[in-house]
Design a protein that fits this description.
By secondary structure, the chain is mainly α. Helix content is 67%, strand content 5%.
Length: 120
């Protein structure tokens, strides 16, 4: 990663430039999430999935990236992959940190479960 003493300007599709300051790791994760969200909104869920996965490689507990992965799988009509991913994420949170996914993440998971149950 490029280190600089000067503010870095992040330009994200359909957003105004912002000056990134602070921890370089946080800036990196924010940039990945912004790229992923912009790519998903641009209609490229497979490419967005790769950005979200890259964010999770850098921080395997990053819930914003988890939610993004779930949304990508849904857009790609892969609910089974979304459910499997969520389960792995929930196990990792519990095992490593003693935490459970947020109510928002659980609600999305349960919504996918209900949708899949109705389609059977």
């Amino acid at each position: 990663m490029l280190e600089t003493r000067f503010p870095v300007i992040l330009i994200v599709a359909n957003a105004s430039p912002t000056i990134a300051t602070g921890d370089p790791r946080i800036r990196y994760l924010e940039a990945l999430l912004a790229l992923a969200e912009g790519t998903l909104k641009g209609g490229e869920p497979q490419a967005a999935l790769a950005w979200f996965q890259q964010a999770l490689t850098a921080d395997p507990y990053l819930e914003a990236a988890c939610l993004g992965v779930l949304r990508c799988y849904l857009v790609m009509d892969q609910p089974a992959a979304a459910l499997a991913f969520y389960r792995q994420y929930a196990v990792r949170l519990e095992r490593d940190l003693g935490l459970r996914p947020s109510p928002e993440a659980r609600a999305l998971y349960e919504s996918i479960l209900r949708t899949q149950d109705r389609s059977r």
